[in-house]
Design brief:
Distance between the termini: 46 Å
Largest sheet: 6 strands, antiparallel
Structural class: alpha+beta
Number of helices: 3
Order of helices and strands: HEEEEHEEH
Number of strands: 6
Strand order of the largest sheet: 1-2-3-4-6-5
Helix content: 25-40%
Number of domains: 1
CATH architecture: 2-Layer Sandwich
Length: 141
């Protein structure tokens, strides 16, 4: 792909390209200074995800849990670090949301990635988020 995606052009392509499998996936564009694509994965228990293009990267993320839901942050952080290498195509991190830490599962790919690779990333991240939530269930209050 020669021209990199923008968040808006990626959203339009996902809606208009009939060759990509989006069954069970709901997409909506949330405008603003930095637009995002809100993704609802109905086949994954209505898992919420966000996707945005910034420069040379497409960033896709999904919430895992709030830090306030974790019994022991040090033990949880170590468990996250140990899962990260065996969780292909996804990473674990923290984001500040309204003054509270939110653990997220995220992945990135090139803003020049073909559309089918973007869809593959969405599916992989959803699967990895569910697997991480199951793996960390004992760490949550």
């Amino acid at each position: 792909m020669n021209t990199p995606w923008t968040t808006e052009s990626l959203h339009e392509a996902l809606h208009s390209d009939k060759t990509v499998d989006l069954e069970g996936i709901e997409l909506s564009l949330i405008g603003g200074v930095d637009a995002i694509i809100h993704i609802t994965m109905h086949e994954h228990g209505d898992l919420a995800m966000h996707m945005a293009v910034s420069g040379e990267q497409i960033f896709v993320s999904s919430p895992l849990c709030l830090a306030s839901q974790v019994k022991d942050r040090n033990a949880f952080n170590e468990a996250c670090l140990r899962l990260n290498p065996v969780n292909p195509l996804s990473n674990l991190g923290l984001q500040d949301v309204g003054g509270e830490d939110l653990y997220i599962v995220f992945g990135e790919l090139s803003s020049r990635s073909p559309l089918n690779a973007v869809v593959e990333e969405i599916h992989a991240l959803a699967d990895n988020t569910i697997q991480a939530a199951e793996a960390f269930a004992d760490h949550l209050k």
